[in-house]
Design goal:
This protein is 58% helix and 7% strand. The chain is α/β, with parallel strands linked by helices. This is Dynamin-related protein 1E.
Length: 618
């Protein structure tokens, strides 16, 4: 059978671990909050409701700061541990481990000092809890969370927003479905105006999680009592109301011992004509036992759902850790291996894009199938081979010596001028493929998940890839221009010999020496020259339309697939350990996230072990 001590102790240990990690609910939403899933008893009450006195009475010690205004300015997680009779009482703070306090006046001072450490000596509040464990034979195993007292008016030195800030903080604790609400109300005030009851009604309308406590029963007007409340007639809860009688201010001033105060409280109820019949269910000792039993019951009921949350969170965190990658090795050889593996991962994705459809291979094919032919069709051959330009070029080429048969020099000049126009589309094809490859590099780096951790290496790979692509572009341009120049440097004479010979009006074939001297400046003669050259240029255009893509693929695409990072690999082999480490400098955000995930994963696994260590006894 799982003991109450082991169950509550388990939750106490998990709560402390959560606080160390910064998980105290209502804050970071990037992780599931284990703190919010843990059952707890939240103590709620307005200022001067007697909340601090109730807690001290349950503990049996004076240890809480006192004063006017807002005294509790940080949540106090109070973990009570019952120890053997006759053992030394002591207290221990989570922020001061292994430093036991046996003087509870020093405990009070440390609570004040630790509060001021975060909030300063102002009246500000902080949601970061203080953890205090008290070990005593005079307590039951119980965990209580003391929250700032609800208030309606800001005091001097506080912003007007303090009222809402306190309510928001308190609400974040009591609205948790696993929270037990201890609503403290003074008996000498109308229960309808109780701040604690008002808030608990909003977050727990059925009253299933709320325990009502009436304080200051001994301070009610003579002739009145609180039986209507205590017996559930004026305001009913699922659980019975508990009345308590705290020490008076005079008792506090006289340093009346809490053990004596507990005895006086028992005597008050036992001898009271109004409450005598309820005496066995009244008082701070009964309240502590009732809460301890209820907390143990809630913990037992919630263990399956808590375990489910933990297992789900572990699975999600391990998946994220795999995504973020493991910490980088410090050994130079291991670092070089890591860099090479990352480069290969990038290269693999780059090749997949290049050999696949959009935005890689398909776009490159579009350059060859659409862009290049369209550019060739738009070349200004009509203007270059116009009648006027042909006449001018041929005449200038003849000079003072007319051609004998055909104006060969004129032909050559016109052809060379026309072929020069092919340079533009050839170079444009190289540039277009270059920009496609450059975009693929950028896209592939972005899609290489393993590289996201290493912005320095990302930049180095991008720079090396773009540098290589520039070299490939230069080679590509030289090659396609060489193709154009090759066409200009040697004309296919056989093409002109195969052209159909048209007959002149006089009956002599074109190019006949007898007619050339007579007709060399005839309009028809120049038109035939333009037509012949146009046919030759069309043939060259078809040739280049096929050979330019071959050159571009050979010089750029093929090289990008085979040797994009070859120079980078050579340079890597020359780098020393420090330079390799610099390449593997991680994005600080990724490093921080990994550390957060690792710590949270450790918390969840240790919490699962805590639960497993007691749940088998159930």
């Amino acid at each position: 059978m799982t003991t109450m001590e082991s169950l509550i102790g388990m939750v106490n240990r998990i709560q402390r671990a959560c606080t160390v990690l910064g998980d105290y609910g209502g804050g970071d939403n990037t992780f599931s909050s284990l703190w919010e899933a843990l059952p707890s008893v939240a103590v709620v009450g307005g200022q001067s409701s007697g909340k601090s006195s109730v807690l001290e009475s349950i503990v049996g010690r004076d240890f809480l700061p006192r004063g006017s205004g807002i005294v509790t300015r940080r949540p106090l997680v109070l973990q009570l541990h019952k120890i053997d009779e006759g053992s030394q009482e002591y207290a221990e703070f989570l922020h001061l481990p292994k430093r036991p306090f046996t003087d509870f006046n020093l405990v009070r001072q440390e609570i004040q000092d630790e509060t001021d450490r975060l909030t300063g000596k102002t009246k500000q509040i902080s949601p970061v809890p203080i953890h205090l464990s008290i070990y005593s034979p005079n307590v039951v195993n119980l965990t209580l969370i003391d929250l700032p007292g609800l208030t309606k008016v800001a005091v001097e030195g506080q912003p007007e927003s303090i009222v809402q800030e306190i309510e928001t903080m308190v609400r974040s604790y009591v609205e948790k479905p696993n929270s037990i609400i201890l609503a403290i109300s003074p008996a000498n005030q109308d229960i309808a105006t109780s701040d604690a009851i008002k808030l608990s009604r909003e977050v727990d309308p059925s009253g299933e999680r709320t325990f009502g406590v009436l304080t200051k029963l001994d301070l009610m007007d003579k002739g009145t009592n609180a039986l209507d409340v205590l017996e559930g007639r004026s305001y009913r809860l699922q659980h019975p109301w508990v009345g308590v009688v705290n020490r008076s201010q005079a008792d506090i001033n006289k340093n009346i011992d809490m053990i004596v105060a507990r005895r006086k409280e028992r005597e008050y109820f036992a001898t009271s004509p109004d409450y005598g019949h309820l005496a066995n269910k009244m008082g701070s000792e009964y309240l502590a036992k009732l809460l301890s039993k209820q907390l143990e019951s809630v913990i037992r009921a919630r263990i399956p759902s808590i375990l489910s949350l933990i297992n789900k969170s572990i699975e999600e965190l391990e998946s994220e850790m795999d995504h973020l990658g493991r910490p980088v090795a410090v050994d130079a050889g291991a670092q070089l291996y890591t860099i090479l593996e990352l480069c290969r991962a990038f290269d693999r994705i780059f090749k997949e894009h290049l050999e696949g459809g959009r935005p890689g291979g398909d776009r490159i094919y579009g350059v060859f199938d659409n862009q290049l032919p369209a550019a060739l069709r738009k070349l200004p051959f009509d203007r270059h081979l116009s009648l006027q330009n042909v006449r001018r070029v041929v005449s200038e080429a003849d000079g003072y010596q007319p051609h004998l048969i055909a104006p060969e020099q004129g032909y050559r000049r016109l052809i060379e001028g026309a072929l020069n126009y092919f340079r533009g589309p050839a170079e444009a094809s190289v540039d277009a493929v270059h920009f496609v490859l450059k975009e693929l590099v950028r896209k592939s780096i972005g899609e290489t998940q393993e590289l996201k951790r290493f912005p320095t290496l990302q930049a180095a790979i991008a720079a090396a890839s773009n540098e290589a692509l520039e070299r490939f572009r230069e080679d590509g341009k030289k090659t396609v221009i060489r193709l154009v120049d090759m066409e200009s440097s040697y004309l296919t004479v056989e093409f002109f010999r195969r052209l159909p010979q048209e007959v002149e009006k006089g009956g002599s074939p074109a190019g006949n020496p007898a007619s050339s001297t007579v007709d060399r400046y005839a309009e028809g003669h120049f038109r035939r020259i333009g037509s012949n050259i146009s046919s030759y240029v069309a043939m060259v255009s078809e040739t280049l339309k096929n050979t330019i893509p071959k050159a571009v693929v050979y010089c750029q695409v093929r090289e990008a697939k085979q040797s994009l990072l070859n120079r980078f690999y050579t340079q890597l082999g020359k780098k020393e350990g420090k330079q390799l480490s610099e390449l593997l400098d991680e994005d600080p955000a990724v490093m921080e996230r990994r550390q957060q995930c690792a710590k949270r994963l450790e918390l969840y696994k240790s919490s699962r072990d805590e639960i497993d260590s007691v749940s088998w006894e159930r």
